[in-house]
Amino acid sequence: MDKCYKSRFLNINPAEKTFLVHRDAYRDPEVFALEQKKVLHKSWIALAHEAEIAKPGDFITRTVVGKDLVLNRDRNGVVRGFYNSCRHRGAAVCRDRGGNSKSFVCPYHGWVYRDDGVLVSTGSPEADAAFPDGFCDGRTTLLSVPNLQQYAGFYFVNFDPDAQSLESFLGGAADCLQMISEHSAVGMEVISGVHEYEINANYKLLCENSYDGYHLSSVHASYVEYLVETMKGSGMELKPVGAARSFGHGHACFEIAIKAGRAVAQWIPSMGEKVREEVEAKREEVIARVGEERGNVICDTHRNMVIFPNSVINDQQSVLVRSIVPTAYNRMMVRAWTLGPIDESDTLREIRLDNMLSFLGPGGFATPDDVAMLELCQRAYEATDVEWNDFSKGFSAEEITREGAEADLYDELQMRAYWLEWDRMMNA
């Protein structure tokens, strides 16, 4: 980018090395309504992991960018996504969060849908006889979502009938998902339990925060002190090394090689000597399977990635997926769930969950402080007349964030990549 650019939301001056974002993008209800149509409903949104619907009949229900959905694996093993609404009068056909069922029954008038979405009964033989011939033979089915695709076990949904393929959309972010699937030779599973909480802030603030390395030392000073303390007497150094990366289409991450401990597979003293042999054996297995260079990246590199526009995947002390559900211009609901290898031992699973809870859990080192910062920001956007946010750290005229770039770990390239894509879609 070598020319000045200005829109309603962006003010970019490469010569002065400034990149500004207007605060209306966070605080204007009309902007939020517009971005739902132009951005959220036209992007691929992370929905679930294949492990959640592993067996025929398994189903889950989710709300994704304001739309209620059922995702299931039918009796023939086909994965399907439906709108959770009866074709008769509109009631939800499934009120459970998940389970296993061969059919879905509307609670209002008793319409019964097979697990492939086909209507098989309108409630009783008498009711069936009152409808036209063939009415229960496929004429009225649950409405499928326009696009449902998976990559490396992650299912995504897109409500735009003309959407590009998921793999094309993911670009360089696809390899990060692939590396998570390579944590285990036998596959990953969703660990039982989920955290759900609300934040009084615009959803994009959590996206920004999720891969912002710049705030680590100020907001999470207590965690850094904790890591330093755990390293004492071990001979290990706490020297974060990493980079901010852009993958195109608004996706980006920061990745950092740091001795913070991973069940797959990085041992640190706080794990205890008893588990050291098991962690190091797991590391050897990963490297033997995928090669030394890639194996070292999987085992040693902590990665926070945002898949544009609202899916966060933290591959660090554990693997945490944050599905962000925007509920208003200044409010979001976060659904956070954890992945782990199917063949993981009880000992390593305990370490994984302890790592996740102690840092990214609702009461951990990071999350409460982050939530407080996001709500402070939102308050200022709505209660002051300041117009622009500054994302200029590390910006240069040579930066090409849409096609992919790399910058210092503590720069803001990843956020500039996000905002360029968001602005492009808003002005399409």
Kindly describe this structure:
This protein is an alpha+beta fold. It folds into 2 domains: 45-149, Rieske [2Fe-2S] iron-sulphur domain (Rieske Iron-sulfur Protein, 3-layer Sandwich), CATH 2.102.10.10; 172-426, Alpha-Beta Complex (Naphthalene 1,2-dioxygenase Alpha Subunit, Chain A, domain 1), CATH 3.90.380.10. 31% of the residues lie in helices and 28% in strands. It is built from 14 helices and 23 strands. It has helices spanning 24-27, 29-38, 125-130, 135-139, 166-170, 173-181, 203-210, 216-219, 221-231, 276-290, 292-300, 346-359, 367-383, 413-426; strands at 5-6, 10-13, 18-22, 45-49, 58-64, 67-73, 79-83, 98-100, 103-105, 112-114, 119-121, 147-151, 154-158, 188-190, 195-199, 241-248, 251-257, 301-307, 311-315, 319-328, 331-341, 388-390, 405-408. Strands 14, 15, 16, 17, 18, 19, 20, 21 and 23 form a 9-stranded antiparallel sheet that branches. A 4-stranded antiparallel sheet has the order 1-2-3-22. It has a 4-stranded antiparallel sheet with strand order 7-6-5-8, with no helix packed on it. The chain is globular.
